[in-house]
Amino acid sequence: MSDPQNLLNYPQTRQSDIVDNYHGTAVPDPYRWLEDPESEETKAWVEAQNKVTFSYLETIPETQLIKDRLTQLWNYEKYGTPFKKDRRYFYFKNDGLQNQSVLYVLESLDGEPRVLLDPNTLSEDGTVALSGIAISENARYMAYGLSRSGSDWQEWHVLEIDRGEDLSDRLKWIKFSGASWTHDHLGFFYSRYDEPDEKTQFESVNYYQKLYYHRLGTPQSEDVLIYERPDEKEWGFSGGVTEDGKYLIISVWKGTDPKNLVFYKDLTDPDAQVVELIQNFEASYSFIDNDDRRFWFQTDLDAPRGRIIAIDIDTGTRSQIIAEAEETLEGIGVLNNRFITEYLKDARSQIKIFNLDGTFVREVELPGVGSVGGFGGKRSDTETFYSFTSFTTPTTIYRYDMVAGESTIYRQPTVDFDPEDYAIEQVFYHSKDGTRIPMFVTHKKGVKRNGNNPTYLYGYGGFNVSLTPTFSVSQLVWMELGGILAIPNLRGGGEYGEDWHQAGTKLNKQNVFDDFIAAAEWLIENRYTSTEKLAIAGGSNGGLLVGACMTQRPDLFAAALPAVGVMDMLRFHKFTIGWAWCSDFGSPENPEEFKALYAYSPLHNLKSGTAYPATLITTADRDDRVVPAHSFKFAAALQAAHNGTHPVLIRIETKAGHGAGKPTAKIIDEIADKWGFLVKILDISVDFKTAKA
C-alpha cells in the first residue's frame, strides 16, 4: 500500500552531457555534478530531496509510536567487555539513551567505578565520538582518538589517568589506525596520512599512509618516521608492540584484501632497522604472540579456514601448531599460557582452548547459539571476560576462570521483553548454482507460514565479513510488529573461510546477488512471506547488494532500503579509501573486471520506464568512507527511471558519517523512519499493546 507517485513531486535533477569511455564502451554520467558536496547546487539538491522525503515520512502516524517503543526498549544499561591494564580495569557503559558510551576505570574488580572519559560532554548533539583508545602498560596514560560527525578522520589526545586530565599532545590526520605504547611508557606508534586539502578532506583519495612514533610532550611535527613506502602509495601500516615489549610488529595492508606482509623492528636496539619477515602478499598473517624470537601467527596460507603456525625469525623455519579445522578460525589470543581460539561453525561462535604445543584442552561451554567477543588479556592472566549475544539475548558479560574452566555472569542487562516469545531457526537453501547457503530466520512464536508475514531480508556478502547472531532493539521492534527477520550468510563473507570470501569477489560478485535473490525466493516458496510483504536491506557493501538486486529483480521485492551503499561501480575507486575495495570488487581500469562491474553497477543498470520497489535510500553528508555521491547519483537516476506508484526517496542525515560513532538519538530517529516507511509500504498494523509495558 503506497501513495500514487503523482502525489510526490520529486526535485528536478539537472542532467549534464558528460560521457566517459571505458575500454571502448561509452558510459554517460549525467549526475557527475552531485559528486561535489560543497557546491551550492548540490546543497540545494540535498535540501530539496530531504524536504520531499521528510514530508512523506511525516504523513505516517505510526512512526511516532514506533519511535516511542524503540526509545522505551533502548533505555537499558549496556556494558562493554572489561579489560585489564596493570592493576586497573576499564570498561564502557551506556546508561540507556546516552548518545555515546562512557569509559570507566576501576582500581579493583569490586571497586567503585570512576568516569575516565565521557564523550557526551564533548558536543551538545553527541556527534563527537570516541573512536579508539590505547592504555600504556603501567596504566598511567591513555591515548585516545576522537571522530567528529562520523568522519573516518581522527584526532588523537593523551589523558593522564590518575588526574583524569589531558596532556598537551594533539595528533591530527589519522585514519585507519590505532596506537601502541612502548613499554617505557614514553610514547606510542601510530599511522597517519599527509594533511589533505581542507576543502576536499572528505572526498580526496587516501594514499601514502606512514608509520610514526610519538613521544609524550612533543609536538606532532617532531614525531619520528618509522616506516614509509613512497613507491607503494596503496600500502598501509599497522604497528603493534609485542607483549614482551621487545618488538614492533608492522602489518602491511593493501586495500581490504586480507593478504598482508609482516615486518618487525627490534625495540631493544636503538639502531635496529625494519626487517621484512613476510615479503609477499601470499596470504593473511595475524600476529598472535611470541616466545622471544619464535613468532606465532594465525594464517590462511594453504588453509582457507585458518590455522596457527610458528616462525623462527632467525632461520625462517615454519612449523604448524594447530591445523586447519572444519570450522573457520576467527581469532586467537594467549591466556594462562594457552591458546584461546574462536571458531565459526555455520556462522555461530565456538571457543576452544589449546596448549601452546597445539594439543586440545577443552571447549568453552557457551549459553547458546550466538556470537562471542572478548577473551582478551595477557599471557599470564588466569581470568578474562567475554560477551555473548544472540538474536534474543542482549549482550551479556561473563567472567571466565581459565584455571577452573568456569563462566560466571558479570553483567546481565534487563530489557523489556521475553526472549521465550521468539523462535530462532537456521535454515539452509540452495543458490542459483546449487551452493548451499545458511540463513537465520527469527520471529515471534506462533507466526503462521501463510505467505502474509512482513519480512526484512538483510544481507552483506563481502570483504570477508561474517554476519553472526546479535541482539538489536531495532530488530526486536520489527518482530514485535509481526515481522520476520531473515539474515543469510552470503558468499563474499568470511563464514566459511577464504574460499567462501573469494567466491563472492571480482568476477564472482554476481554469486552474492544470486545468493540473496535465492534467499528471497526460498522465503516466498516456503510461505514465510510474499513479494508484496518482502523488504530487502543492507548497508555499505550491503547497500550495493540491495541496489544490485532491486535493479536485477525489481519484481521480487515490495521495498528496498539501501544504506550508505556503493552504487557507482565505475568511480568508487576515485574517492577517499574507495581504491582499497578493488581487491573485492575488481577495478574499472581492468577491461575484464570493468565488464563485470558494469553488468551489475546499480547506478548503470536502472532501466527507464521500470516500476521499482518502494525505496528509501539513506546516507549522510559527512560519510567519507562511501561518499554520499553514490547515493545522490543513484537517487537521481532512480527517480528519473521509475515508472511506478511506489515512492523512491533519499534520506540524507546531517552531521553524520558512515555509521561509526553515530549518536543514539540519530540512530533511533533513522530506524523509526525506516520502520514507519515499511509499515506504510507493507501495510502493517501497529499495535504495541501486546508488548510488555
Automatic annotation (TrEMBL):
Task: Enumerate the UniProt keywords alphabetically.
Answer: Hydrolase, Protease, Serine protease
Q: Does the keyword Hydrolase apply?
A: yes
The reaction(s) catalysed by this protein are:
Hydrolysis of Pro-|-Xaa >> Ala-|-Xaa in oligopeptides
What are the EC numbers?
3.4.21.26
Coiled-coil region = none
Q: InterPro entries recorded for this chain?
A: AB_hydrolase_fold, Pept_S9_AS, Pept_S9A_N, Peptidase_S9_cat, Peptidase_S9A, Prolyl_oligopep/macrocyclase
Give an example GO molecular function.
oligopeptidase activity
The processes (GO biological process) annotated in the record are: proteolysis
Name all Peptidase S9 prolyl oligopeptidase catalytic domain ranges: 470-683
Q: Where is the Peptidase S9A N-terminal domain?
A: 11-412
Q: Which family does it belong to?
A: Belongs to the peptidase S9A family.
Please report the name of this protein according to its UniProt entry.
Answer: prolyl oligopeptidase
| Organism name | Oxynema aestuarii AP17
